[in-house]
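Listing S7. Sequence submitted for prediction.
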Amino acid sequence: MDKKSLVARIMSNAVWLVGVLLFVSSVYFWMFRYPAHLAFGEQIQLFLLSIDYFLPFLSYPSGMAHYIGEFLTQFNYEIWWGAVIVSLLVVLVYVQSYAIISRETSRYGIVRVLAALVPSGFVWLFMLDRFSLLAMPVALVVALSFIQIYQLWLHRIGGRIMRHVVLVLMSVALYWLFGAATFIFGVFVALNEVFRLRDFVALTHIVAIVLMPLLAYVFVPFPLQRLYTSNCYYKMMDERPSLSYDAEDEEALLYSFLSHYKKWDAAIRKADKKMPDDLASRQIVLHALAEKNLLLDRLFEYPIIQRKDLISSQSGDMREPMSVSDLYFSLGMINTAELSAYNMQQLYFGQGVRAFQRLAECNIVKGDYRIARKYLNALKQTLFYKKWAEDMEKLIDNANGVEMHPYYGVMRNRLMKETFYFSDKELDNILAHSVNSSMDAHSYDYLVAYLILSNDLDKLAKLMEGNTNRMPKAVQEALVFHWMSKNPSFDGMPWNIDMQVMRGAVDFMRMMNEGGNMQTMRPAFGKTYWYYNTFASRKSK
């Protein structure tokens, strides 16, 4: 086979080679680089298999696109399914675009392939935003399908006026069901009819495109911009898709993903390479350390400069704050965990399976079974959470079942006897109540860490009275610092402190007296409580 024939064969099969390469690269990207992104999309929605859930989607533009998109998104429950579905949509847009372009012209083969990649590339970019919905690629596939139908059959409808009436009505129906992406159908028809047939009546399709959102605006309470643009396929009502990769967003989603599935070792390994900047993610790292009984030994190995890195209320600088509910729940702060789940639904403009699971869990642990049943009844109408909801329903009105449960039994033991909501000013008292209620090491470590990060060493020393066991590194450093501030020597110190820690404290004080500053002290003492107390905690105020 000569070189020219080989090149010719490759070029003749370029469309399929590119399609396969596009599919493989897309599956790899979404499955291994963006798995938390797919999981997030599934967890912030609640798709129910019921007619009552379906009917409201017919009452607003793009509703059918959203319904089909949510149906497909629920398969992100298994990440590989989600990756395959997104990739199939990307490739389908590419194949349809190529078929449409090829029917219009048979020349410039490689140019047709490259041109067909543009719409699929747009779909890929659109889906990078965490709040972008599968409704957009679904709507685009439908619009391209009707363009193909027009090319094959609809343009043959007899009678010019009748043809345009049918096509305009079709554009109206497509817009109502699938939204602004279907504008390309009307634009294609108009351009095709005008340039091929010189039929300027086809401009009525452009008029229909302009008027349809205006008419819809009269009947639905949506912003006009949302009715005209791709914002109609976006979760957040007052924002627009970024069409770009946001590394910080994805890092936050990944930490939330690791927290939700209790992959604590993976979260610690990731933080060992680089501590995240997002508040919720930093809290997940410390939560992971606590779950592995490493919190008080490794507390200052990371650049932590604020006590809210340990635990705090939800705030605007959290990129994915649902994971905060996991922390509250694990500490027995059930009311705050429940409130967090409610707040997340408000933040994400809708109900989500992750929030519903948490609300059901909270109410089962508290014994509010009537409320728990409400959330379980909804989850029983889902595809992937039905079995979980049915198993949880067995705990309703079954106190012994809850007590014997390997996870919820522990949570009920951690449940505080008094009702608390989160308060920064009262957090030490709340954590103390949690410890007294559950006698749980997890809650105890958080109380000790909070006192250390608050520089409340008097309370810490009182808490440690009578403790002669070897204590974790951060506790030793804080107690030595407290002792040295009140005593001229280590004589009579009541705690079991390692000699290395005492020597380190002496060296720290000596270097400070010799004029040490934040920069010069960091190499030797940057991962100690002494450095935190003297420099980091003060800088953060």
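Caption to Listing S7: primary sequence and predicted structure tokens for the chain studied. The mean pLDDT is 86. The first helix runs from residue 3 to 12.
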